[in-house]
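Exercise 7. Predict the joint structure of the components listed below.
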Amino acid sequence: MSQRFGAGIWHFATYVDRYATDGYGDPRSVIDAIDLAGQVNDLSVVDLNYPFFGGEFTNDQIKEALDRNKLSVIGITPEMYTREFAKGAFTNPDPGVRRRAHELITEACDVVRYFGAEYVKLWPGQDGWDYPFQVDHHALWQNSMDGVGRLASENPDLRFVIEYKPREPRVHMSYSSVARTLLAIEKIGLPNVGILLDFGHALYGGESPADSAALAIDYGRLFGMDVNDNFRSWDDDLVAGTVHPIELFEFFHVLHKNGWEGVWQLDQFPFREDSVAAANHAVDFLKTVSRALDVLDEDALAEAQANHDAVTALRIAQKALFGSW
Amino acid sequence: MSQRFGAGIWHFATYVDRYATDGYGDPRSVIDAIDLAGQVNDLSVVDLNYPFFGGEFTNDQIKEALDRNKLSVIGITPEMYTREFAKGAFTNPDPGVRRRAHELITEACDVVRYFGAEYVKLWPGQDGWDYPFQVDHHALWQNSMDGVGRLASENPDLRFVIEYKPREPRVHMSYSSVARTLLAIEKIGLPNVGILLDFGHALYGGESPADSAALAIDYGRLFGMDVNDNFRSWDDDLVAGTVHPIELFEFFHVLHKNGWEGVWQLDQFPFREDSVAAANHAVDFLKTVSRALDVLDEDALAEAQANHDAVTALRIAQKALFGSW
Amino acid sequence: MSQRFGAGIWHFATYVDRYATDGYGDPRSVIDAIDLAGQVNDLSVVDLNYPFFGGEFTNDQIKEALDRNKLSVIGITPEMYTREFAKGAFTNPDPGVRRRAHELITEACDVVRYFGAEYVKLWPGQDGWDYPFQVDHHALWQNSMDGVGRLASENPDLRFVIEYKPREPRVHMSYSSVARTLLAIEKIGLPNVGILLDFGHALYGGESPADSAALAIDYGRLFGMDVNDNFRSWDDDLVAGTVHPIELFEFFHVLHKNGWEGVWQLDQFPFREDSVAAANHAVDFLKTVSRALDVLDEDALAEAQANHDAVTALRIAQKALFGSW
Amino acid sequence: MSQRFGAGIWHFATYVDRYATDGYGDPRSVIDAIDLAGQVNDLSVVDLNYPFFGGEFTNDQIKEALDRNKLSVIGITPEMYTREFAKGAFTNPDPGVRRRAHELITEACDVVRYFGAEYVKLWPGQDGWDYPFQVDHHALWQNSMDGVGRLASENPDLRFVIEYKPREPRVHMSYSSVARTLLAIEKIGLPNVGILLDFGHALYGGESPADSAALAIDYGRLFGMDVNDNFRSWDDDLVAGTVHPIELFEFFHVLHKNGWEGVWQLDQFPFREDSVAAANHAVDFLKTVSRALDVLDEDALAEAQANHDAVTALRIAQKALFGSW
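Solution:
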């Protein structure tokens, strides 16, 4: 079976930030975004925000738009990071808000069931802190774990993936790294909680994404992944492969070597670019990676790695990826 | 004369970002913001965005709100970073957009004149690039300088201040550092262009803000300043003094030693905090700094600095700032 | 009992780096260093490198020097990061070198027993990688854990502490963060393995050191700590409290609140400073912190933290620390 | 004429750091290093440290070693960053040390003349500061400029190049960025002072190296360059092209477009690698870059850049560099 590609549907939305408050383009509904996603070569799945953005839409209406674009749903991302949750969803100081977060995500569970998606994606971007002395770290972390654990135990038929990130919008996010997230998952102790590993978040957090993937796989918790690129100091969500192609190749090599066969997804924010062109360019690079994995001299690479011989290992890898060497 | 304090009026607005697209609070008009600014202890000036946000207001209406809050205007910040300018104001690839940026800022000049403010503040946050190979760096930089130079030569009665920052919203901003901005100002060669030095931007750019201030003063170009705090890796715009009090004190020491007598301004974004409380807390710290400057043993410090004796210099400075030592 | 203070004995050595290969001062033996440590006010314990540097010394000779300076030993740091271990100690590709690392640390165990110290300190600074594709991450991490586990199981009478750090001298260190280290400790599953939390390493790794301490305490694994300061982007090992006093106070507050009663140690590298003056300045700050903990309004702080009210919490904390507010 | 390649001779030395104080290999003399450099494919020039390391050697002895390896000298790097200069060379608080730095560099001038080299390379790695409040920034910067200016005016027959870097070994270096260095050069006002642009230093300083090159060329001050790679947060001096191949290509594209025809040099520190293999791997990548420049569609790229069209520009560039697209 050939490699499947996917994208977060927000790839095809427009964006605001604290400066361009009038947005980087005209608002689009989720339906508009799906129709753009359908124009990308070889995209087969999307991750949908819930509630659906840009209007009131039924699941059936969304399904119809997906069908006409030959797309299916891999995951649902409940919007647990909007105004109501500005001081946290799982960790909000107000128990009423924590409850509302639980309800919102529980609704999202039904959307996952409707679409036959693989997982509920938890991205607790507002759960954390900004200042020294602001929070009781022990209590905050306990709430971070309790919120996930309760959802996972109430919905044993579904998978929950946590997408960690060092920061933004909070100055420090609770689920900040692969290791921190695995610690939580081990403590929660349920089989249906895993990691959605975002290449850019790992890179930005000072991790080697290939190492992060290896660790999550060691624990049997790599439930999903997505890619993009950045300059290591912020979650720029640039087009995959345009800045760090070699580390992206190493990341996919770890997945490949471990027989990980999930979807290769995009999590890009083309603020100023044509979103279809940005997605096509990334998918073209991913196809190059896929071909490179086929021609990589695995035995020679394994021997070089056994010796920690960086120059030899890189020569093998660069030759496979770039061809022209 | 006692020290005057000021704030960017956006300190009292609410914010959006790419996740909390519904905003971190109900929208406020500039009038609402001015009324909040009036509640801060000892605030006497504000910097106003132009166009005025949250409605259609005449200069007279704004003036009335300022008067009832005993506030005057230090500068006007034209919004040259909104949707129209997403690919740059001075450096936009479209000459029509560059012209529109020029017109907008020219309008802002008249607002400066109306309010008798000290300067037009140029913050070209969208002028720069995101990707390798995206731009011709020579041409981009030339446009960055030409845009400022034209304004300054057309309006010799006004001062223009450039507020540099390493990045955000662009991944790389053209006016990225104190030295880069001084290079441009020297090339432009006009007396009415200077720097608005944001403490947090310097910190975040890996500069020592005290050194940045000293350099701008050496060139006679320190026309304004504002303060806040961050964790050195992003422009967090946190409350001044809450993370890096010693470097903030060193920054003010350089201003004081050089007889720089301008307003001490706040550029904070209290996303999740009460904006009046956040301003009051910062002003209280600034007053502590002001008192510390009065008691600092300048001779002993100068001697320690002449020897590059860090431990002695810090003992003197920390004692003055923190008292309890 | 009053607070005890300590220091790594290397604080009183001289240093080389890749540029000043002739060193930042005349070489000193460990005996010289102990005699300098004895001049610091209120220092009662030291951590000793093993083998002892600067000559051939017996345990008895070291003990005599310690006794005349009224110092005792808190830990022994085997030098598992010198030339022989340049490509790793626990993770070296050569099994013979891994064995030699084991032997060296086993010798250090006997030195711990001789001095009645609290722990063997493991700082695997060469265990990691430099380049993409250089290593098999799964295998490397397994070796990282196996090396520690074997020592801990062979020496059940002793405690082993792992001092994590993001990098240096390796570009990426295996034991890179508090969460990663706790994952390993949980997997190793022995009661005598814990964390030595270096404030600067946590800061430099983008952690909030107070949060790191809280997490290690949650797992019952905070076996030791040391402090210093830096600019968040490298392990500068500057004098504690000179750059980030508020976060240092928060770190100690978490220890205090949890009844953690160990030694407050210094891990500073005064390359260009008088080492006794640098230690005294740091200890003076730590005493300020200790007094601040006594006057901190814990109830009011707990209430502010329960509300995630940063401004109120900081006002309480800054007032306690700085007095002059 | 085909592209000439060069290397700092330290590429072929061994190193120490503050942990592996016994060095990452047996010491080598400069003669040993030259003989290793001679084994690299297509290396034609070297930059030599002065004094020559690893023994007492005459210029004639060095020349003989160079001749037998078919190497010539591009520049001389006086060691103004060793113990004597630990608190600065140009900026040392002791005028006697400043004088000694001047004398050392003046001696190096004669070595440049002897070898017919292109420049004296100034790398003032100890000139700067470590702590807040440690120095008078104005005075320090003035000394930084005076030291260079005096040398340049006393030796009008020679060129002096300043190699800037953000930090290391000082926590902050005075010559920290391309713009700061150009400011100094403009102030010094002599024709024989320029920049040696190290790709890795620019990258690590948050610059886009291509933009840095363009700026230095605009001022007519790009007198030399060298390359390597790193992870953006430290001067790792890794093998060129192994981490950031696309930005390296962009850097060379700017040189090429501007008709800059100097030597492409390596500044790598292969701590744990075979130094000949590390150099060969880098040179192979540079040859790939050279071929890519030949096939790059310059017109199409220029058009994409005129529109700031990142996706199109990158597609053109990546295709030229990687072939397999």
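Discussion. The CA atoms of residues 6 and 45 of chain A lie 5 Å apart.
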